[in-house]
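Note to self: user wants both folds in one dump. Writing first protein now.
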Amino acid sequence: MEAGNKTGILEFLLLGFSEDPELQPFIFGLFLSMYLITVLGNLLIMLVISSDSHLHTPMYFFLSNLSFVDICFSTTIVPKMLVSIHTENKAISYMNCLTQVYFSMFFPILDTLLLTAMAYDRFVAICHPLHYMVIMNPRLCGSLVFITWFIGIMTSLLHVCLMMHLSFCKDLEIPHFFCELTQILKLACSDIFLNSTLIYFMTGVLGVFPLWGILFSYSRIVSSIKKMSSSGGKQKAFSTCGSHLLVISLFYGTGVGVYFTSAVTHSSEKVSVASVMYTVVTPMLNPFIYSLRNKDVKGALGRLFSRVASCL
């Protein structure tokens, strides 16, 4: 490797969780299991939504997109880590690392914006039920998803373009299990002011404003629910929002947890363990939250399994 040469970098080293050889089989088995559960669970949600006409609504259109994004997010990180453990090779090429940086930023941005779109959908459904299908028409839903992808693509591309102009003249060992942008910036020997400024600015814009939109939507939802005279109507409204609220809490809670962990500790292992929550655990739990807490999805699952059983 040529220190300080932007084009001379051949590879980085991902140090992972532990160098203890006795722990590697356990880590490999644990992450392989979680990855398979994530992929199969989210694929099942997508299959159920696409195959059941009762779920062809804006809410489940956004949910199927969220499931697809969760599969892609885990696939960006976990397979490379499993290969590294299996082959005992921690190296990752410069271009592959850039690619991982891009997608490890892109998919969380999509998650944030899709959860915001889902909050708006619940707001319209509960606060303006008579106009729901008019407002949440296919054109608007498609436009919201397109805007989400456009913002994710452009933001991630901007970060990677700035990163490509950096020189790396320190030890190129990344104390993490994937190429995380802030960890890589610590290895740079050139000025990272623009990179850091962009991170803080985009975190504020894409973190605070969507969260504000979600909180505003649910404040109006709670206000509308309180005005309902029927206890059955209140229960139905809360049940349709419960799963979404739980997913939002898990997503933002783990993100904030990672931020504070990295701020208060210098232990790379603790930061890596905290990062597992939002990169692996959250995408794995989302299908369970929506299938176990949502009557519509549970009913659709039952109908799907009945059709499968009748074909055997």
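First done. Writing the second protein, which came from a different request thread.
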Amino acid sequence: MFLHRLPILVENTVTLFPHPHSLTCPRYQTHRRFSSPSLFPSFQSRRTVLHSRDVAVVSGSLAEPEPLPPELRSDLMPKHVAVSMDGNRRWAKMRGLPPSTGHEAGVQSMMKIIDLCCSWGIKVLTLFWFSCDNWKRAKVEVDFLMQLFESTTNTLIETGNREGIKISVIGDTSKLPLSLQRMISNAEERTKQNCGLQLIIAISYSGKYDVVQACKAIAGKIKDGVVEVEDINESLIEQELETKCSEFPNPDLMIRTSGELRLSNFLLWQLAFTELVFDPHLWPDFGKKQFVEALAAFQQRQRRFGGQHS
């Protein structure tokens, strides 16, 4: 998932974290020097220098959507894309930088993918921010991530209302800091009427957790006499999974970055018939080119859902 601190100084370059009010769905502009305040003001006293070769430059118009590349067909675009954003810490380690730097660079990649989904008509984007298993990480990293998630969510509220993005959050949010819980509730409330891209944020989430909480919900209904044991089927379980918040709960395409060839407890039930793409790039290096390649691979596949293709 993500991390870091303040206005990042870069040679020849791009603003990694402009002031939140300068963001749109979101597109960024290149600059020669940095004068805008950090997205994370509590870390303004600490500075890190990144060279332009270490950062995927994100640029574009603030007004015009990104055109659909000629190698993609709009009629074959997946309705729901899920992304396991992996490799931030390795990206930073390879550059001799703290993990926090990699996480912040990862946020930048995330913003660009959100932008492309808005432009290309993808209906739902699910992003794996923080796994239930990530609570095992060092407290200093987890504490920073919670602050980063809060700041990023605040920015996404503004972006969402400008771009028509509906924000939904899945996972065991009861474990999150109260301030982040309030921010999440605010994000969902303020964007619930938006009818563009649905951005589903999986935080303190795992596929096993999702199935267990669905089973508990069904067990409660059996105890209350609302349903009978004989009523339990796949449809009933799916009605209790946290992705019930979406019209398209099951991803058509799942992308995992960093070259790891596993699901790592992400949307285990929902990925039953999902097309999988494992990209070798670390998440901060994943950009438009890699996203187009993943979408093109998806569009070349024939989906059978267990049946025989005609």
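Dump finished. Worth passing along: Strands lie at 9-10, 49-50, 80-84, 124-131, 166-170, 198-205, 253-256, 275-278.
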